[in-house]
Amino acid sequence: VQLQASGGGLVQAGGSLRLSCEASGFSFREARMAWYRQSPDNLRELIGWIDSAGSTQLSDTVKDRFTLSRDNAKNTIYLQMSRLNLGDSAMYYCAYGNYFGQGTQVTVSS
Fold first, then answer.
1. What is the pLDDT at residue 41?
2. In the chain, which stretches have pLDDT less than 70?
3. In 10 A of CB 85, how many CB atoms?
4. DSSP secondary-structure letter at 102?
5. What pLDDT digit, counting tens, does each position of 33-59 carry?
6. How are beta strands 104-109 and 9-12 bridged, if at all?
7. What is the layout of strands, in order, in the sheet containing 2-6?
8. Can you tell me the distance from the alpha carbon of 51 to that of 68, in angstroms, rounded to the nearest whole number?
9. What local confidence, expressed as pLDDT, does residue 68 receive?
10. Cα torsion for 11, 13, 70, 98, to the nearest 10°?
11. How far apart are CA 25 and CA 45, in angstroms?
12. CA–CA separation, 62 vs 3, rounded Å?
């Protein structure tokens, strides 16, 4: 299983970013995929997941600002983030079951 997250970076508060995660090594089309994040002072937090049918579930913290999507033809999931705030700064990871990618850093500046 390989999970390659990308799209992180530095963004001003109120801005947007789209993260991508390209997967390989398993049956992506049938997989439920998830996004997590972790900042230095916090435990890893589940942001949300998307199942094989495209149904999504997002945490209360982000559900009004973030959306999940997937492109099965590209074996990729996406996390569209808008109205970012300082609290969103973290390393973001995509996951399949107990497998985690290497993460992509999101830093929100004031």
1. 85
2. none
3. 12
4. -
5. 999 999 988 899 999 999 999 999 999
6. parallel
7. 2-6, 17-24, 76-81, 66-71
8. 10
9. 98
10. 90
11. 25
12. 22
